[in-house]
Structures are given as C-alpha cells and as structure tokens.
Specification:
Strand order of the largest sheet: 5-4-1-6-7-8
Structural class: alpha/beta
Shape: globular
Distance between the termini: 17 Å
Largest sheet: 6 strands, parallel
Radius of gyration: 17 Å
C-alpha cells in the first residue's frame, strides 16, 4: 500500500506542529481580560485540533450556536494572530522526518483546515516549511476536511494521482478525507487526541506513535 508513494501530505496542527500553547494562550487571554481565572494549557491541549470552536468551548463552555460565539471567535482570531508563532514549534522528530523525505526525493506538503489568514503567515515564518511543495488551507477550496476536495487539490498542485500520495493526520476527519480522496492514510497517535480517541475506528491504513515511525512505513529507515 505504501509502495510507489511519491508524496507525503500532512495535517498541520497536532501532526507537524504543536500550536496548542499559542492557541491556548489566545483563548486564555480572553478569560483574563474579563477577570476570569487563567486555565492551564492541559485544559486546552486536547481541543487544540478543533481551533476556535475547541478553544472557546474550553474557555467559556460555549458552542457555535450561542449568540455570542461570532464575536468571541473574531476576538480569539485577533489574539491568535498576534501570538501564533511565539510558542509554536515542530513536534520532536518532525524536522528530521522532513529532511529524510527531502533527501529521498519525495514531494511533501500540508493540507489543513486552518484558514489562509493563519496558515500562510505561520508557514512562511517557520523554516520547517521552506521545502513544502504545496500548502492547502481550509478555505483554499469550497470545502474543508472531512471533504476530500482539499486533498485532491494538493495532489493536483503536485501533479500526482491521489493514490501516489499518503496523508498523515491526528484527527478522524483527516482519515475520512484521505480515504475519500483515494489516498493511503496514516493516523498520528502522538497528536492532540492521542489516547482520547478510538483510532481503530477511524480505519486508517496505519497508525504511528512518533513522526519518525512514518519512515518505516515508507521503507526509508
């Protein structure tokens, strides 16, 4: 299944980078600005993959159908925009993984549900992404994951058939999107959901517990 792979596509938050500290800080500032007690990062981390919805849910216990959600979301976005590279870093082993992918002559890129408003500035500021051949954001196509459109767009930009790309992600939406696009899929168990998720139910083609474990699947180790 992982033979003849010519490109590796990754989810962003929770798969390549640990952005939870900055996401959590942006939401927690909203609490402290209102005189509420600060919450620990451990409260925010499991929901980091859900973006604004997850962070506002932790900070205020509000869902998107609440009347105040729209204003809170924009306030969160403004806070996050101001701090999104202060604490964010690549997960341990990711830089080495990307170096090996580059050395092997494979193409690689990112497919994320994060909007271009954040994806493009963030990836331009982090040296890790200097060799990425495609970066597809949540609003690059009319649909976001779990719809396959973003993954199909990434494959198109790379000039490859979907079956020549493997998709790695730490959320069930990633696996659903990858399967719908016709790509082999890998679940990243080191991501935000980790032990909280029933990854077996996602039906990924493989599961890895560290970034470097992907090299074994691709027979590069």
């Amino acid at each position: 299944m992982f033979n003849d792979i010519e490109a590796v596509l990754f989810d962003l938050d929770g798969t390549l980078i640990d952005s939870a500290p900055d996401l959590g800080a942006a939401a927690d500032k909203m609490r402290t600005d209102r005189g509420l007690v600060s919450l620990p990062l451990a409260d925010y981390r499991p929901m980091a993959g859900a973006g604004a919805r997850g962070m506002i849910g932790v900070a205020f216990g509000l869902a998107p159908d609440h009347a105040d959600y729209g204003a809170l979301k924009e306030e969160f976005f403004t806070n996050y925009e101001a701090c999104m590279t202060e604490r964010t870093c690549a997960f341990e082993g990711v830089a080495e993984l990307i170096a090996q992918i580059d050395s092997a002559g494979l193409k690689w890129g990112v497919v994320t549900n994060k909007s271009e408003r954040f994806t493009l500035p963030l990836t331009r500021q982090m040296a890790l992404f200097s060799t990425a051949r495609t970066i597809v954001s949540g609003d690059t196509t009319p649909h976001s994951k779990p719809h396959p459109a973003p993954l199909l767009e990434a494959a198109r930009q790379l000039g490859l058939g979907p079956d020549r790309c493997v998709y790695v992600g730490d959320d069930e939406r990633d696996i659903v999107a990858g399967r719908a696009a016709g790509m082999p899929t890998v679940a990243a168990a080191y991501g935000y959901l980790g032990a909280m998720a029933d990854m077996q139910g996602w039906k990924a083609d493989a599961t890895i517990v560290s970034p470097g474990a992907l090299l074994n699947l691709l027979r590069m180790a």
